[in-house]
Amino acid sequence: MPYKFPLAFDSWDNAEKQEIFKVVESGYLTMGDKVKEFEQSFASYIGSKNAVMVNSGSSANLLMIASLFYSKDESKRLKRGDEVIVSAVSWSTTYFPLYQYGLKFKFVDIDIETLNFDLQKLDAAVTEKTRLILAVNLLGNPNDFDEIKKIIGTKNIILLEDNCEALGAEFKNKKTGTIGKMGTFSFYYSHHISTIEGGMIVTDDEELYQILVCIRSHGWTRNLPDKNLISNKNINDTFLESFRFVLPGYNLRPMEISGAVGIEQLKKFPAFLKQRKKNASIFIKTMKKFDDLFFQKEINYSSWFGFSIVIKPSSKRNRSDLVKSLNKIGFECRPVVAGNFANNEVIKYFDKNDINSLENANWVDKNGLFIGNNHINMYDAFKELEKL
Known about the structure:
Aspartate Aminotransferase, domain 1, seven-stranded mixed sheet, 12 helices
């Protein structure tokens, strides 16, 4: 059914369409100068030394995990069987690369209000076997990275960020995605900016950057500098260097069209983000009237991907009726990301520790939903919410 307030609105105008036309007319459609320009612009905006564009946010997560298996530095190199801690509530492709690279899962519960890590349970979950913490900035909300770093302390634990829903979020004046060793972003249609499909990985680590560049394109050396940290030095012969493979790679390159669109979308993004924040302030004011519902508690500076609504245990509401009510007044809604992912049948394939209590994740799984936030004025939408 058509919704008056769908999860996402189109954020393109003639600028993006003109750039697509120029790329098509150029005849160069695969990854090229436009992708490189978008990477440079994105790195500058986000405050990272390096950015690597790929064909989706899911691919960004895959390459981020894969790159850690090929570092020459033992302090940041993973091996199969290493323990990784991850929130129980996220999207599927947060988890699948961890499974695909043979890492051992430890699911940690969420805080019922922030929807990010329950920090006490995260602290309790860390052991001498822990090698990686993957922090998910859910629905645009940054984690409390001061506390996470205290938990890590001097332990040899790598911190990564799945920032696919949180472009523009900040923690203490530092943009999320740049706080861990690497961070990922998604440019899918419903996200903060859209490049049709597309994703990005950012890092300040030069070796990991070069590994990402290499394994994004078949594991060959063609896109590496002559003097690099992967193959030491490329052969000074373009013909011989064309098909020299040094790492087990993929073909996850983006289209040149996506890069061109990304350049235009990034120009507009500050205005998009400003409107999202304005929408959030009105949403919060509206939802405070409902003392039987939780809405996401902001940690520092959220970029408000969407608006979660979670029924409190004391409430007499049920989610099915709440969804029907929201649909009736024009809102499209979805579960909170994928709910408690540990409840999915697919985890029978995962190498995991015994799953401890995931009480809050289970509650959100059965009693939570979210509605979309967008780059347009949604004040009229929130007037409708008062009817709930």
